[in-house]
Amino acid sequence: MGETQIVTIPCLSDNYAFLLHDVSTGATACVDVPDAAPIQSALAARGWSLSDILITHHHWDHVDGLPELVTATGAKVWGATADAHRLPPLDHSVSEGDTVTIGGLTGDVIDVSGHSLGHIAFHFPEAGAVFTADSLMALGCGRLFEGTPEQMYDSLQKLAALPPETLVCSGHEYTAANARFALTIEPGNPDLISRVQRITTARAADQPTVPSSLAEELATNPFLRAAEPAIAATLAMTGATPAQVFARIRAEKDTF
Question: Is the separation of the CB atoms in 30 and 6 below 8 Å?
């Protein structure tokens, strides 16, 4: 396994971009481009050259800096075939089951529609990381602007099946607000209670709470725990399917 480095870059008010660097080849990818300047600064500080840009979905706060970054670096742009009509120009269009190549690293493309249709995630097994943007988030999931609860539930199940040690690199610093909601769904979860304490400490020190580990999400994120009988009971939904419980949790979060 080659050595990889991942850098979390705060952008705008609460967005994150990520750099994925393959040490053996020097290839570097950026995942999403909310704003070019912080990404260029992070590259310059490390002496890295940007070879590739991976776009997860079309929303402005994930692509606005893309033209400037492409002009500055000449990086090749990867994005979803299903989203190509509303993305900036792509050099490589991909769908679920396709792979992306960053130097010596290979990433698997996963369709995670729900927040938007055509939203994709990138899983790099050698790096032990998945870039999920606004699908699976730290203690949450993206609001369903275009997809159905069933679509998002299915998307999250794909991500939940990845190795538990996988780093979940998601797109926003929403974790503290997500934590307050999660406690209303599972107030007695000891793993959640201790995680909330760590989040509070981190945010007080202006430290990011992203990335998180998938194991941590499986233990504490209510959107990944819709099959737990205790959660169904809390919501007076005993006997409902996990997908139905998920839909209820998402609806509760929308009005929280």
Answer: no
Same domain for 56 and 142, yes or no, is yes
Q: What is the DSSP letter of 83?
A: G
Per-residue pLDDT of the chain (256 residues), as tens digits, is 469 999 999 999 999 999 999 999 999 999 999 999 999 999 999 999 999 999 999 999 999 999 999 999 999 999 999 999 999 999 999 999 999 999 999 999 999 999 999 999 999 999 999 999 999 999 999 999 999 999 999 999 999 999 999 999 999 999 999 999 999 999 999 999 999 999 999 999 999 999 999 999 999 999 999 999 999 999 999 999 999 999 999 999 999 9
Q: How far, in Å, are 17, 102, 159, 224 from residue 127 at the CA level?
A: 16, 11, 16, 23
> Among 110, 138, 170, which residue terminates a domain?
170
Q: What is the pTM of this model?
A: 0.97
Range of the domain at 210: 175-254
| Residues 147, 56 within the same domain | yes
Q: Which residues are catalytic?
A: 57, 59, 61-62, 115, 134, 172
Both 36 and 125 in a single domain? yes
